Inverse folding.
């Protein structure tokens, strides 16, 4: 089957026109019918809703009570409110979405790191007393035998 035959079959199946490039040469490009405005609006709202949802997930790790605030439904409502504003000012998700996803993925490492920095910066009186892992226990009596049970010395 030739490419023209495949294109004609696709045109019949989809019912959409096939655009010809200028000059009649080059590949044909199928033009699909546009999404209905409602569908496009909901897709944009879902994209925008991802921002507060990820942000809320990060915050909820430190403040679990916020899980009730940053629900999928609440974030989707926020996304629906954000779409007209974004359209008015020409904002798109592009790079912001990637940066927020990167921040969320990094949080599992950054959270404990920030906690360690806070502990180090705290005054010595407020620091929790920790013992170095190589220090022997002071309360442990010295063993008079080897681990295999034979006497020392």
């Amino acid at each position: 089957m030739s490419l023209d035959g495949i294109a004609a079959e696709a045109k019949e199946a989809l019912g959409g026109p096939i655009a010809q490039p200028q000059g009649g040469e080059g590949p044909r490009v199928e033009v699909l019918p546009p999404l209905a405005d409602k569908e496009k609006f909901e897709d944009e709202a879902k994209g925008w809703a991802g921002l507060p949802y990820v942000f809320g997930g990060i915050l909820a790790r430190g403040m679990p009570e916020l899980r009730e605030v940053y629900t999928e439904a609440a974030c989707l409502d926020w996304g629906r409110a954000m779409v007209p504003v974004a359209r008015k000012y020409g904002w798109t998700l592009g790079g912001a979405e990637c940066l927020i996803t990167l921040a969320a993925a990094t949080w599992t490492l950054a959270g404990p790191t920030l906690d360690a920095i806070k502990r180090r910066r705290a005054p010595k009186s407020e620091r929790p007393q920790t013992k170095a892992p190589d220090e022997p226990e002071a309360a442990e009596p010295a063993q008079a035998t080897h681990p295999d049970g034979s006497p020392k010395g």
Summary: The first strand starts at residue 18 and ends at 19. Residues 38-107 form one domain. The CA atoms of residues 85 and 91 lie 8 Å apart.
